[in-house]
Amino acid sequence: MTDISLVEEESWQIAKRRADVIRPLAALRQCSRRLVRAAADELELSERQVYALIRRCRAVDGAALSLVPGVSGGGKGQSRLIRAQEELLGSIIAEGY
Predict the structure, then answer these.
(1) CA dihedral 10, 14, 19, 22 (to 10 degrees)
(2) Sign of the Cα pseudo-torsion (30, 35, 40, 43, in order)
(3) CA angle, corner 71, sides to 65 and 75, nearest 5?
(4) In 10 A of CB 67, how many CB atoms?
């Protein structure tokens, strides 16, 4: 899960809004497609994204932090750092060792 101190204010506001809509759905044993569709419309997301948010919310007992909009992590076998960060770390390691 993301460290809350690293979350930008805009992303945190989105997560809180999502939590208001998603938590009641996550609390249900089964969620009807009608409710998911309504949540998708309200949050301006696809139904698939709403189902994913419900799963994430359930996995962490409703923590709003789980609903922070994500950024691509780079994928398997790829760096999760931007090139400048990668170069800086490389130079630090080279100087230190």
Answers:
(1) -170
(2) negative
(3) 120
(4) 27
To which residue do tokens 């750092």 refer?
81
Q: Classify residue 64 by burial, with Cβ atoms within 10 Å: 0-12, 13-18, 19+.
A: buried
Q: What is the pLDDT of residue 83?
A: 78
- Record the pTM: 0.67
Rounded to whole angstroms, the Cα distance separating 86 from 40 reads: 37
Give residue-wise pLDDT tens across range 28-43: 999 999 999 999 999 9
The pair of three-digit structure tokens given for residue 58, joined into one six-digit string: 């359930």
What pLDDT, in 10s, does the model give residues 12-25?
899 999 999 999 99
With beta carbons less than 8 A apart as the criterion, state whether 67 and 53 touch: yes
pLDDT of residue 42: 97
